Every structure is written in C-alpha cells, then in structure tokens.
Amino acid sequence: MSLTKLDVFDVRNIERAALTPSSRLNFIVGANGSGKTSLLEAIYILGRARSFRSSQAGQVIRFQQECLTVSGRSVADEGPAETLGVRLARRQREIMLTGRKLQSSAELIAALPVLLIQPASSGLLENPPKGRRQFLDWGAFHLEPGYLDQWRGYARALNQRNALLRQGAGRQAEQTWNHELARYGTMVALARERYGERLAPYFLEASRHFLGTTQFELKLTAGWDRSRDLLEVLGDDRDLDRRLGYTHSGAHKGDFAVLADGRPAKAYLSRGQMKLLVFALLLSQAHLLEQSLNRRGCVLVDDLASELDGANRDKLLAYLAERRSQFFITATDDSLLPVSQLPGSGLFRMDQGRVTAA
Ligand SMILES: Nc1ncnc2c1ncn2[C@@H]1O[C@H](COP(=O)(O)OP(=O)(O)O)[C@@H](O)[C@H]1O
Ligand SMILES: [Mg+2]
Known about the structure:
The protein is of the alpha/beta class. About 40% of the residues lie in helices and about 25% in strands.
C-alpha cells in the first residue's frame, strides 16, 4: 500500500495541508517547530486512529478547534484503491474506510500499515519490554492471520483471571479462564515465534548493511518456560499469583533480545551501534512486509539527521532506495538529502504549518 493523496486539517500547527506523495521516498524539510513531526503524526493517525505523541486527542487538535481530520487514498499493488478517513474530537473518534464507518481501528490498521522510527525508538532494546512486545505484535498482526482475535482472546482471559485472583474466587472459578489463557497464550507465542523466524533473515541482511556483521541472533522468550504446557504452569503458579494478585507467567510477559555470540548486544555495543541495530530491526519489519503479497507499508522516519552521522545517513538512504515501501523522512536541513540522486522521490517544504511541494 502507499498513500497517493493526503489531506490534513487542524493537526497541531497544521491548519490545512494537501499532499500528493511519491510512492517511494518523501522528504519533508523545514525548520524546528515548522510542523514536520506534526505531519508524520497526521499520517500515523490515518493508519492507527491515534497519535504517537499523546494519548489525548485534545493535545493534537489545533488550538481553538473542536476536532482534527486526516483523510487519504491508499493504493495497493493489486485490488482497488481505498479511501481512509479519521476524525478525532476530544472524546470522539470516527473512522471511515471506503464509505464504511468502522467501529474498531483494526481494519484501518490493516489497510495502511504504518511504522514509525523516531529518536525515541533507539531505546527499543534497552527500555522495558512493552515496546518490544508491541514490535512483535505489530508484525504478527500484519502477517499472521487470526492474530488479532487470538491476542484479544488472551487479553480478555488475562483480565478475568486477574480479577478472580484478586477477589479470591477460588480454583474452580479460575479454571475456565486458565484454559482460555493457555489456549490463546500458546497461539500468541507461536505466532510471535513464526514472525521472529520470518523476520530473522531480513534483520540479518539489514544488520550486515548497517553494522557490517551478521553475528546477531533474535532471541524470543514466550513469557513462560516454553518446554512446559502453559496450563500446567498456570496451575503451579496459582498460589503465588493469588498472593501477588496477578498472573505472572504468560504471553503478556513475552519479550525478545538481540544476542551477539550468545550475549545480549546491549551489554557491549556502543550507543551509535545500538541505534543502527534498532534501525536494522525496524526497517527489516518493513522489508518483510514488502515481501508478503500486497502489503507494502508506510514508514515514517522522524528527524533523520539527529539519529545518524553522515556516513550512516548515506547507508540508510542506500538501503531505502532498495526498498519498495513508502517512506516519509523529515530533516531540518536539505543539504543532508541527496534527493536528486534517488529517482521517484518527492521533496516537501514545511514552513509554519504549511506544506509546499518543492
Ligand atoms: N495543539 C496544537 N495546536 C497548535 N499548535 C501546536 C499544537 N501542539 C503543538 N503545536 C505547535 O506546533 C508546532 C510544530 O511542532 P512540530 O511538528 O513538533 O515541529 P517540528 O517537528 O517541525 O520541529 C510547534 O511550534 C508547537 O508549538
Ligand atoms: Mg520534530
């Protein structure tokens, strides 16, 4: 998929913006505070129905306005084009997909797979595991059929079991939910493992490109001892879980690490190398998606220059030039952007919330 048209109304300092992006590389250049991140935020909202900067729509809506609107047209390699629209008010959300009003964002997310790389992404491997689970879940959602239902089934069973543990409802009452939790948890773990296996060769290719080595290994952990049945583990954990008031084993504790020669990469790579490793991970997600039929993604790269030095920026641009995904890349200085050398790319200038094609 790629966006062939984008209209933005009242997102932060952008009163109105209309763009006809290139299906490949799009550079957005402007001074600090001009609205570059806000434009990426608008595209993200179009693909996810929420912002990445704030959980409160009120902060994203332009001052003095009631709501924001983002709409666009996405085309796939095959099949008809889709029109997408998201309107966010302070306490209301409306999602439209080709003339239909959607109740949940799942179909929208599937229609426009959006991936974000921002300065904060470089902490992916060092931060708490939530971000790494989201990384696996994003991939499994887009590539593993039925994953969303499994994940939702798991989340529901987990809530129920935790509530019963806190109420002290007793083993009998918990039993149904243990079964659900074990069934869905095992499916979620399997889907994540399959995703990790599919991702690995793309990740190694990217790590060779960015770091000159393929010594890395992607090591997933399921959230419990995978040599044992989750149902059995839940039974054995029960008294401890009862005291804690929550379930301490299961897919909600899943994680992954990048190992080099069997040791966690984060223990001895430099800051700069860690950034490159995270770039390799995130971009390999986009690469894998390109390989699956009709599922090209839209990748947002915020503040390219602050992330990489000159040599690595060139490496990144060389890598992107080989991809089929659509990219939106922001920077403050266009001397950094050898746009003219990259065929089929677009350049946009951002100035005080206004976008113009350059
Ligand atoms: N809700 C809002 N309404 C209007 N302006 C906003 C809102 N939120 C932030 N801004 C302003 O939007 C401007 C653009 O921010 P940003 O997109 O982060 O710029 P850039 O990424 O180009 O540095 C900032 O000057 C900020 O003060
Ligand atoms: Mg910014």
